[in-house]
Amino acid sequence: MTETNSLLRENAAQITLLVVLNLFVGGMVGLERTVLPLVANQDFGLYGKIAAVSFIVSFGVIKAISNLFAGRLADRIGRKKLLVLGWLIGIPIPFIVMFAPNWGWIIFANVLLGINQGFCWSMTVNMKIDLAGSKYRGLVVGLNEFAGYFAISITALLSGYIAATYGVRPQPFYLGVVFAFIGLFMSLFLVRNTHTGHKRGSSSLTISLAQSFLITSWQDKQLFSVSQAGFMTNFKDGMAWGLFPLFFVARGLDLSSIATIVAVYPGTWGILQLFSGPLSDRIGRKWLIGLGMFIQGVSILEIVFMDTFTYWLVGAVGLGLGTALVYPVLIAAISDLAPSESRASSLGVYRFWRDFGYAAGALFSGVLADLLGISHAMLIVGILEIISSLVVTTILRESLTTHHAQGNRKTVSGD
């Protein structure tokens, strides 16, 4: 216990720096939350829902693949190199979005954004876990996810207000230029490389990526239950990202009001993760995850069935609460359950499925919205979230007991 407390104090400055860095990682995504679905309509005349959400599909697929390989690459070349590479890839993104002559360039920008997020966000998570040790996984992951999603909220709000004043392009994306250059500077000159205790031996790569993929995705039912919850959480978010602005426009809301709702959801999500991550270190992972998935589903249903700004705002808060209860806790649960020698790879597989949910949710809800209408698409996604909560409560065992037992054994190695 003293050893783990000492480890956290020793690395507090670097952990804080990584928290600040993830503000800029999240800000790159937040720029698109309010404005880009409207760019599709207003600048490029894309009124079909599938076309309007296609940028989320490209982002989600590429981010998922980047996540899958990020853990293994980090074990091979080091966390910092991958972090810097992610920011180098991120530099062109705001310029492409600002000056894209056709929608294909927007899709390409979101391919780059997927790589940027897959490398940079994955590394901020892995580096904090390296630095904090096993006892404080929930705490540091909560801090990391708070920073990223709080930044998404603020930039979604700011970009919406800028768009309402100046137009949807290029002014809202000036912020992205600032974020990308600050992120690259911090990663190059302020962040130090980290490594886990098991990198000192030769065992860290004894489990192949293919084996880790099969184990985390399906063979280990505990890891499967966590992975499907992550998938469904971002499945819902892909729907919200693509359809919420269009849903509220159709209900007659102005752009500033839409920006407020779109920002409140990730803002609540981000802030409450400061509490849910550490709380899971104390009371366990399972029931926070199950409850969070259920609240997500109910909140979507509330938004669909209500018809005033106040009720929609309440639904956005509920959606943020439900997501906050699961997001850092799912990462901590994977870290508890995965073997230490393949933890980075298992986290990569989990993050693959979680962020593939963006693409699947956007595509699924876009197809349904074109066929049945936006409200029916949102309704079906809400029901699927509730089903996912039942899968967690039925299959997942409490991982915190195992986590503490492993932590007591591995504290000396700093794992």
Low-confidence stretches: 196-204, 402-415
Order of helices and strands: HHHHHHHHHHHHHHHHH
What share of residues is helical?
Answer: over 70%
Strand content bin: under 5%
Separate helix tally = 17
Kindly, what is the distance between the CA atoms of the first and last residues, rounded to a whole number of angstroms?
13 Å
How much is the radius of gyration in Å?
20 Å
Oligomer: single chain
Mean pLDDT: 87
Indicate the overall shape.
globular
How would you portray this structure in words?
The chain is mainly alpha-helical. Helices cover 83% and strands 0% of the residues. It is built from 17 helices and no strands.
Considering the chains and any ligands shown, give keywords for the structure:
83% helix
Summarize the structure.
This protein is mainly α. The protein is built from 17 helices and no strands.
